[in-house]
Amino acid sequence: MNGPIAATKADDELRERIVKHEWDQFQQVDNEGGRANCQGNWPTFHHMRFSQFSVWPHDLLASYADDLDAADRAGRNLLTEKYGRMMESTAPEVYRRDIAPYMPRLGLERQERQERIIRQQVAWAKDFRERYPRLGQEMRILRTADDTAQDTSFETYLRGELSTYSPKTLGLYETLVLVLATQRRNLTEETLLATVRLAGYGNLEEAEAAQKDPLSQD
Q: Which InterPro entries does UniProt cross-reference here (predicted)?
Protein backbone atom coordinates (compact mmCIF):
# COMPACT_ATOMS: atom_id res chain seq x y z
CA MET A 1 0.00 0.00 0.00
CA ASN A 2 2.16 2.84 -1.30
CA GLY A 3 -0.40 5.47 -2.27
CA PRO A 4 -4.12 6.17 -2.54
CA ILE A 5 -6.19 3.07 -3.21
CA ALA A 6 -6.51 2.55 -6.95
CA ALA A 7 -10.13 2.41 -8.06
CA THR A 8 -11.12 -0.65 -10.01
CA LYS A 9 -14.50 -1.36 -11.53
CA ALA A 10 -14.97 -4.46 -9.38
CA ASP A 11 -14.10 -2.63 -6.17
CA ASP A 12 -16.33 0.32 -7.03
CA GLU A 13 -19.19 -2.11 -7.67
CA LEU A 14 -18.51 -3.64 -4.25
CA ARG A 15 -18.49 -0.17 -2.69
CA GLU A 16 -21.85 0.58 -4.32
CA ARG A 17 -23.27 -2.68 -2.99
CA ILE A 18 -22.05 -1.90 0.53
CA VAL A 19 -23.51 1.61 0.50
CA LYS A 20 -26.87 0.30 -0.76
CA HIS A 21 -26.85 -2.42 1.89
CA GLU A 22 -26.11 0.15 4.60
CA TRP A 23 -28.89 2.37 3.25
CA ASP A 24 -31.36 -0.50 3.44
CA GLN A 25 -30.39 -1.13 7.07
CA PHE A 26 -30.48 2.62 7.76
CA GLN A 27 -34.12 2.70 6.69
CA GLN A 28 -34.94 0.31 9.54
CA VAL A 29 -33.29 2.42 12.27
CA ASP A 30 -35.89 3.63 14.77
CA ASN A 31 -35.24 7.11 16.09
CA GLU A 32 -36.66 8.54 19.28
CA GLY A 33 -38.99 11.27 18.08
CA GLY A 34 -39.61 9.73 14.66
CA ARG A 35 -37.82 9.25 11.40
CA ALA A 36 -34.72 11.45 10.93
CA ASN A 37 -34.46 13.72 7.89
CA CYS A 38 -31.18 12.12 6.86
CA GLN A 39 -32.97 8.78 6.43
CA GLY A 40 -34.63 10.26 3.35
CA ASN A 41 -31.48 11.81 1.85
CA TRP A 42 -29.99 9.09 -0.33
CA PRO A 43 -27.70 11.41 -2.39
CA THR A 44 -25.87 12.75 0.69
CA PHE A 45 -25.73 9.31 2.33
CA HIS A 46 -24.28 7.80 -0.85
CA HIS A 47 -21.76 10.60 -1.29
CA MET A 48 -20.42 10.43 2.25
CA ARG A 49 -20.34 6.65 2.62
CA PHE A 50 -18.90 5.96 -0.85
CA SER A 51 -16.17 8.50 -0.12
CA GLN A 52 -15.25 6.68 3.07
CA PHE A 53 -15.08 3.33 1.33
CA SER A 54 -13.07 4.81 -1.54
CA VAL A 55 -9.91 4.59 0.56
CA TRP A 56 -10.51 1.00 1.69
CA PRO A 57 -8.61 -1.86 0.02
CA HIS A 58 -10.43 -4.85 -1.45
CA ASP A 59 -9.93 -7.25 1.46
CA LEU A 60 -11.42 -4.76 3.93
CA LEU A 61 -14.35 -4.00 1.64
CA ALA A 62 -15.06 -7.70 1.17
CA SER A 63 -14.91 -8.39 4.90
CA TYR A 64 -17.30 -5.57 5.75
CA ALA A 65 -19.68 -6.67 3.00
CA ASP A 66 -19.65 -10.10 4.68
CA ASP A 67 -20.41 -8.42 8.03
CA LEU A 68 -23.52 -6.80 6.59
CA ASP A 69 -24.67 -10.10 5.08
CA ALA A 70 -24.03 -11.96 8.33
CA ALA A 71 -25.98 -9.33 10.25
CA ASP A 72 -29.00 -9.85 8.00
CA ARG A 73 -28.85 -13.61 8.55
CA ALA A 74 -28.62 -13.14 12.32
CA GLY A 75 -31.44 -10.60 12.47
CA ARG A 76 -29.07 -7.78 13.44
CA ASN A 77 -28.91 -4.26 12.03
CA LEU A 78 -25.39 -2.80 12.12
CA LEU A 79 -26.65 0.73 11.53
CA THR A 80 -29.05 0.44 14.47
CA GLU A 81 -26.19 -0.82 16.62
CA LYS A 82 -23.86 1.96 15.48
CA TYR A 83 -26.29 4.75 16.31
CA GLY A 84 -27.35 2.99 19.49
CA ARG A 85 -23.79 2.85 20.77
CA MET A 86 -23.35 6.57 20.09
CA MET A 87 -26.10 7.23 22.61
CA GLU A 88 -23.83 5.99 25.41
CA SER A 89 -22.35 9.49 25.15
CA THR A 90 -25.21 11.59 23.76
CA ALA A 91 -28.07 10.10 25.85
CA PRO A 92 -26.44 8.02 28.59
CA GLU A 93 -29.56 7.35 30.69
CA VAL A 94 -31.52 6.12 27.69
CA TYR A 95 -28.53 4.05 26.60
CA ARG A 96 -28.15 2.33 29.97
CA ARG A 97 -31.86 1.65 30.31
CA ASP A 98 -33.02 0.79 26.81
CA ILE A 99 -30.03 -0.03 24.61
CA ALA A 100 -27.05 -1.47 26.47
CA PRO A 101 -28.84 -4.68 27.53
CA TYR A 102 -29.35 -5.61 23.88
CA MET A 103 -25.91 -4.75 22.52
CA PRO A 104 -23.23 -7.39 21.86
CA ARG A 105 -20.64 -7.09 24.60
CA LEU A 106 -17.16 -5.92 23.70
CA GLY A 107 -14.25 -7.29 25.71
CA LEU A 108 -11.55 -5.10 27.23
CA GLU A 109 -8.95 -6.10 24.62
CA ARG A 110 -11.37 -5.21 21.82
CA GLN A 111 -12.14 -1.85 23.38
CA GLU A 112 -8.46 -1.03 23.82
CA ARG A 113 -7.75 -1.82 20.17
CA GLN A 114 -10.59 0.43 19.09
CA GLU A 115 -9.40 3.26 21.30
CA ARG A 116 -5.90 3.10 19.76
CA ILE A 117 -7.46 3.45 16.32
CA ILE A 118 -9.68 6.28 17.53
CA ARG A 119 -6.76 8.22 19.01
CA GLN A 120 -4.93 8.05 15.69
CA GLN A 121 -7.95 9.10 13.68
CA VAL A 122 -8.83 11.98 16.01
CA ALA A 123 -5.25 13.20 15.63
CA TRP A 124 -5.56 12.97 11.84
CA ALA A 125 -8.88 14.83 11.88
CA LYS A 126 -7.43 17.56 14.11
CA ASP A 127 -4.46 17.98 11.78
CA PHE A 128 -6.74 18.17 8.76
CA ARG A 129 -9.00 20.79 10.35
CA GLU A 130 -5.98 22.95 11.17
CA ARG A 131 -4.73 22.84 7.58
CA TYR A 132 -8.14 23.14 5.90
CA PRO A 133 -10.28 25.23 8.31
CA ARG A 134 -13.02 25.97 5.80
CA LEU A 135 -13.58 22.31 5.00
CA GLY A 136 -13.09 21.52 8.67
CA GLN A 137 -16.02 23.69 9.67
CA GLU A 138 -18.30 21.36 7.69
CA MET A 139 -17.13 18.32 9.66
CA ARG A 140 -18.53 16.94 12.89
CA ILE A 141 -17.31 18.36 16.18
CA LEU A 142 -14.17 16.47 17.07
CA ARG A 143 -14.27 14.96 20.54
CA THR A 144 -16.65 12.93 22.68
CA ALA A 145 -16.25 15.47 25.48
CA ASP A 146 -18.12 17.98 23.28
CA ASP A 147 -21.09 15.71 22.52
CA THR A 148 -24.60 17.01 23.14
CA ALA A 149 -28.01 15.48 22.58
CA GLN A 150 -28.05 17.27 19.22
CA ASP A 151 -24.40 16.98 18.09
CA THR A 152 -22.43 13.75 17.89
CA SER A 153 -18.68 14.07 17.58
CA PHE A 154 -16.38 12.41 15.09
CA GLU A 155 -14.82 10.47 17.98
CA THR A 156 -18.16 9.11 19.20
CA TYR A 157 -19.35 8.31 15.68
CA LEU A 158 -16.15 6.39 14.94
CA ARG A 159 -16.39 4.49 18.23
CA GLY A 160 -19.92 3.44 17.34
CA GLU A 161 -18.92 2.34 13.87
CA LEU A 162 -15.84 0.37 14.89
CA SER A 163 -17.94 -1.45 17.47
CA THR A 164 -20.06 -2.99 14.71
CA TYR A 165 -17.13 -4.55 12.83
CA SER A 166 -16.45 -8.26 13.05
CA PRO A 167 -13.07 -9.29 14.49
CA LYS A 168 -11.79 -9.89 10.96
CA THR A 169 -12.95 -6.50 9.68
CA LEU A 170 -11.57 -4.68 12.71
CA GLY A 171 -8.20 -6.38 12.20
CA LEU A 172 -8.07 -5.35 8.56
CA TYR A 173 -9.11 -1.81 9.40
CA GLU A 174 -6.49 -1.67 12.13
CA THR A 175 -3.89 -2.73 9.57
CA LEU A 176 -5.01 0.03 7.20
CA VAL A 177 -4.62 2.64 9.94
CA LEU A 178 -1.20 1.33 10.98
CA VAL A 179 0.08 1.27 7.40
CA LEU A 180 -1.11 4.82 6.71
CA ALA A 181 0.43 6.06 9.96
CA THR A 182 3.74 4.38 9.10
CA GLN A 183 3.68 6.06 5.68
CA ARG A 184 2.85 9.42 7.32
CA ARG A 185 -0.43 9.60 5.45
CA ASN A 186 -3.67 10.96 6.85
CA LEU A 187 -6.86 8.94 6.48
CA THR A 188 -9.07 11.97 7.06
CA GLU A 189 -7.28 13.86 4.29
CA GLU A 190 -7.58 10.97 1.85
CA THR A 191 -11.26 10.46 2.67
CA LEU A 192 -12.04 14.16 2.26
CA LEU A 193 -10.11 14.22 -1.02
CA ALA A 194 -12.41 11.47 -2.29
CA THR A 195 -15.39 13.44 -0.97
CA VAL A 196 -14.53 16.69 -2.74
CA ARG A 197 -13.65 14.91 -5.97
CA LEU A 198 -17.10 13.32 -6.00
CA ALA A 199 -18.46 16.86 -5.57
CA GLY A 200 -16.59 17.99 -8.69
CA TYR A 201 -13.48 19.62 -7.24
CA GLY A 202 -10.04 18.74 -8.52
CA ASN A 203 -8.29 18.75 -5.16
CA LEU A 204 -8.59 19.85 -1.54
CA GLU A 205 -7.12 23.28 -2.15
CA GLU A 206 -9.77 24.05 -4.75
CA ALA A 207 -12.53 22.83 -2.46
CA GLU A 208 -11.13 24.78 0.49
CA ALA A 209 -11.07 28.00 -1.53
CA ALA A 210 -14.69 27.51 -2.55
CA GLN A 211 -15.96 27.31 1.05
CA LYS A 212 -17.14 30.22 3.16
CA ASP A 213 -14.46 31.61 5.48
CA PRO A 214 -15.27 30.37 9.02
CA LEU A 215 -14.26 33.80 10.38
CA SER A 216 -16.56 35.68 8.02
CA GLN A 217 -19.56 37.51 9.49
CA ASP A 218 -21.60 37.09 6.30
A: DUF4125
